[in-house]
Design a protein that fits this description.
3 domains; YbaK protein; binds adenosine-5'-triphosphate; 31 strands; BirA Bifunctional Protein, domain 2; 9-stranded mixed beta sheet; binds magnesium ion; 14 helices; single chain; 28% strand
């Protein structure tokens, strides 16, 4: 590839809207061109990285026994109605109408289409197990597209779907994908960790995310240094913290004036007790119906846990009017005597002497015994609090640590959720009809590209691992007027390309300093400088991007030397 033909343009300055290092570098290196927020085009170099990651994914999927297919991105809404997900996807799913006024969607994911594909083709147990996968563009109307390829409205995903006769077989399929994911991320040069995860709108009850640790990551990960437990903050559990107010007070329950106290801390100050002893009461609308949630004063509600408990689609904080009607004004909400269902976090399980909002502006109720008060009806105790650093590991009790991560992959055991809803059955050995057990497995291919840049960079630019580098060799032609230089460049270029290496010849009429800077910014694995001066000194200068190690090598030996470096890096 000749630079002069690529329209490739690098930028000296970081784009204003780029907040994280990989986004800045991908833009500055000219790998991406922004159309608008959440929509990016790949340049000739950007698309090479994408294709290389896709190829690694493809090879490992094939190795794990999955078969590549290609579904349509455009799907009829009727499939989503069949699975019961049309409502759950809410506004994140792009909907449109065809000329006959049928509602169609642009696929945010393909569980329904995959299930339909299988039920069209499979009728006997002999055809199972089967795993299909595709690499395809997905569409999601994200609330906040940001960070370049990390969160786009249109992105490339590898999605796979497994179908098995029994739950035990499904576990084997899941494990094969899990192992393939570990190999994929390793080959991409990524340090990715599997963690227990929430299943969100996809469903099922068991899943792992693959997380690339990075301070810029959007996900919180709780991990235990003692027993290796690791889970997304949306899912992480904890052993309930000790309770300092487990003994009922000698004093009776009492309404106390707390004028102007609206937050937990303000109420605690007014009552002269620690914040943790004031119960945080929240009212939510779950699919439009109000519910109350109680957590400890110093804890936060973990919304994904509540969503999972209630099995609802839309979940939002109730508006002030609904809240006031159900449980009192904001700042004084409380559970005493309310008629909406109340869900309480396990952290309050021993709470026999706490303060709660009185349901009346300016008042709280002190010495409330949550466990035994006949006026407090807890519909269900559940794990609802957000786990934070220092909480005790659910497995071994050691203090948990918090890290940030980028979710690059996600594997799910779905059970019968889709196959049952979509009436996919096969006949087993005894001619009995059985519903296959399903799993689904996603990799954000385009997000992975940028996660690699996020984990592999230095002050000069991106340091792509050779396996995914957009150009393994930057061949800098310094003096276009010198016939010897032009000939040496052509010779090295053709030998390297014949050996299958990606070469970018910088044949621009630019100063050497600019060419050096750009080669480093783009992150070519090896930089080869061919100039009249280097030829006089006896050859070409070969420099390894990762270490900066430089050597002068005769033109005739250069291709072999370069290929050796590529193989080793
Ligand atoms: P997130 O929690 O980041 O929104 P998700 O859990 O909704 O992602 P999945 O449905 O599990 O995503 O999709 C599989 C993979 O696709 C994710 O692990 C992620 O790598 C990638 N992905 C999801 N949404 C986006 C997006 N908007 N832009 C780029 N990649 C995405
Ligand atoms: Mg996910």
């Amino acid at each position: 590839m000749r630079w002069s033909k690529t329209l490739l343009t690098t930028l000296r300055e970081d784009p204003k809207d780029a907040e994280i290092v990989s986004h800045k570098l991908m833009m500055r290196a000219g790998l991406l061109v922004k159309l608008e927020g959440g929509l990016y085009s790949y340049s000739p170099l950007g698309v090479r990285v994408l294709h290389k990651v896709e190829q690694i994914v493809r090879e490992e999927m094939d190795r794990a026994g999955a078969c590549e297919v290609l579904f349509t991105a455009l799907q009829p809404i009727s499939l989503w109605e069949e699975s019961g997900r049309a409502g759950i996807m809410g506004k994140s799913m792009f909907r449109l109408r065809d000329r006959n006024d049928n509602t169609m969607v642009l696929g945010p994911t393909h569980e329904e289409v995959a299930t339909d594909y299988l039920r069209t083709l499979v009728s006997s147990y002999r055809q199972l197990p089967a795993t299909v996968y595709q690499i395809q563009t997905k569409f999601r109307d994200e609330i906040r597209p940001r960070f370049g390829l990390m969160r786009c409205k249109e992105f490339v995903m590898k999605d796979a779907y497994s179908f098995d006769l029994t739950s035990e077989d499904a576990d084997v399929s899941y494990q094969k994908m899990y192992d393939a994911y570990l190999r994929i991320f390793k080959r991409c040069g990524l340090d990715a960790h599997p963690v227990e995860a929430d299943t969100g709108a996809i469903g099922g009850n068991h899943s792992h995310e693959f997380m690339v640790l990075a301070p810029s990551g959007e996900d919180g990960i709780l991990h235990c240094p003692a027993c290796r437990y690791a889970a997304n903050q949306e899912r992480a559990e904890r052993q309930a913290p000790p309770c300092d107010y487990a003994t009922p007070s000698a004093e009776p329950r009492a309404k106390v004036a707390t004028p102007g106290a609206h937050t937990v801390d303000e109420a605690a100050a007014a009552l002269g007790i620690p914040s943790d002893q004031v119960v945080k009461s929240l009212v939510y609308l779950a699919d439009g119906k109000p519910v109350m949630v109680l957590v400890r004063g110093n804890a936060d509600l973990c919304e994904p846990k509540l969503r999972r408990l209630l099995g609802c689609g839309e979940l939002e904080m109730a508006d002030p009017e609904t809240t006031a009607r159900a449980a009192g004004p904001f700042g004084s909400i409380g559970p005493i005597g309310v008629s909406i269902p109340v869900y309480a976090d396990y952290g309050l399980r021993e709470a026999r002497d706490v303060a709660v909002g009185a349901g009346e502006e300016g008042f709280h109720v002190a010495h409330c015994n949550l466990m035994d008060d006949p006026d407090v009806k807890i519909a269900q105790w559940a794990d609802l609090a957000t786990v934070v650093a220092g909480d005790r590991c659910p497995k071994c009790g050691a203090p948990l640590e918090l890290a940030r991560g980028i979710e690059v992959g996600h594997v799910f055991k779905l059970g019968l959720k889709y196959t049952k809803a979509m009436k996919f059955t096969v006949l087993d050995q005894n001619k009995q009809s059985v519903t296959p057990v399903m799993g689904c497995y996603g990799i954000g291919v385009s997000r992975t590209v940028q996660a690699i840049a996020e984990q592999n960079n230095d002050k000069d630019g991106i340091v792509w691992p050779a396996a995914v580098s957009p150009c393994q060799v930057a061949l800098l032609q310094l003096d276009a007027k010198s016939e010897a230089v032009v000939a040496a460049v052509a010779e090295i270029e053709s030998k390297l390309e014949a050996a299958g290496a990606d070469v970018l010849v910088d044949d621009r009429d630019e100063r050497p300093g600019i060419k050096f800077k750009d080669a480093d910014l783009i992150g070519c694995t090896v930089r080869v400088t061919v100039g009249a001066r280097s030829l006089e000194k006896g050859g070409v200068e070969i420099r390894l991007r990762r270490t900066g190690e430089t050597q002068l090598v005769p033109v005739a030996d250069a291709p072999a030397k370069i290929l050796g470096l590529l193989a080793a890096n």
